Amino acid sequence: MSAVANPATVAECLRVGAGFSQGDRNWIVEQFGTLDARLAAFHADATELEISVKDRESRGQKVTLECWVNGGDKVVTTSSEEDLHAAIMDVRDDLRRRLNDAKTKQEPRHNRHLREVPQPADIEL
Fold this sequence. Notes:
- The structure is a single chain.
- The protein contains 5 helices and 4 strands; from the N terminus they run H-E-H-H-E-E-E-H-H.
- By secondary structure, it is an alpha+beta fold.
- It is globular and about 45 Å long.
- The protein starts with 9 loop residues before the first helix and ends in a 10-residue tail after the last helix.
């Protein structure tokens, strides 16, 4: 497996959208630190994260985390938790699960052991 020359990190790829300030960004980066291990498989130049919140600190608040990896499909996770910290943890954990699921779906192609199919013994005539 080849290592990525410039691995993606939350600190490098995260943008804060509506409802968050640049002052919130450092705190969110700290909370999302566990995503770095999963993002490291992707190039930083081709990875984007954006978090936003609608109706912050109100009963109907909704936190959205969007992720684009390698120019592929967008992965969107949302949370309607009333507590902002809980909502941020919820979208972080959901994104990590989705990235893990996507990686698991691809692994058999790259795992020689799983690809090997036993061949019948050659029969000499």
